[in-house]
Amino acid sequence: MLTEASSYSYESVFKISYELFIFDQNTGDTLSKKGENFGEVMDEMGFRSMIDLKTFKDPLNGYLVKNTCMFSVKILQHVFIQTPIECVRPMELVSHEYSWKIENFSKMDNKTCHYKKFTAGDYLWSLRIFQGKDQNVALYMHYHGSIHDPSVGKVSVEFTLSIVDQIDGNHNQMTYNGVLKSDGYGRGNDHISLKYFNDPAQGFIVNETCIIEAKIIVHALVE
């Protein structure tokens, strides 16, 4: 698969089935988990909770021995998905920063997706935060189209989402660079454990307030 990847563009989409392994160096056994994802060339994929950190670090389990661990992957199947050709229309660069201060955070319903809409240039966006799978916190950005031109359904965009560390400034960040479709799937992450997020020492919640920041650059329209 790796030798063939160079023949495809970075926008090529694949359906990939795989199996990841963590080796038990004490017994020679393996912990494995199968997955299937759609992704583009250079995309990352895997599991955000394949094994909990405490179990992984326990030397009796053999996954981490003398500060060394062993992983492997087996590609079970990869299929190229034909996608329509898209054209990029240049435009004046749009750069915008937005901050969402969420107060009384602990009183919010953790079973509900909480969101905030805002504009960047002539485009409507929303930030969404909710409790994801496996007791993780999920933060996503969604694009909702142009305010003045309904035909602008896709944009080429780069953005950074931050959950602000209000104590030390060590913000939890993720960056996306690609194409977003109006009212389609958003982009973000859900890899922050709920326990870590709620830990007062991390500074994500201070005086019942959580701060989310978004930095957006819209590069072009996609047709």
From TrEMBL:
InterPro entries attached to this UniProt entry? MATH/TRAF_dom (IPR002083), TRAF-like (IPR008974)
User: In this entry, which stretches build a coiled coil?
Assistant: none
Matching CDD domains? MATH
MATH domain sequence ranges: 1-75, 95-216
Q: Which PROSITE patterns match?
A: MATH (PS50144)
PANTHER family the record matches: ANKYRIN REPEAT-CONTAINING PROTEIN-RELATED (PTHR46162:SF2), TRAF-LIKE FAMILY PROTEIN (PTHR46162)
Tell me what this protein is called: MATH domain-containing protein
| Species, as recorded | Platanthera guangdongensis
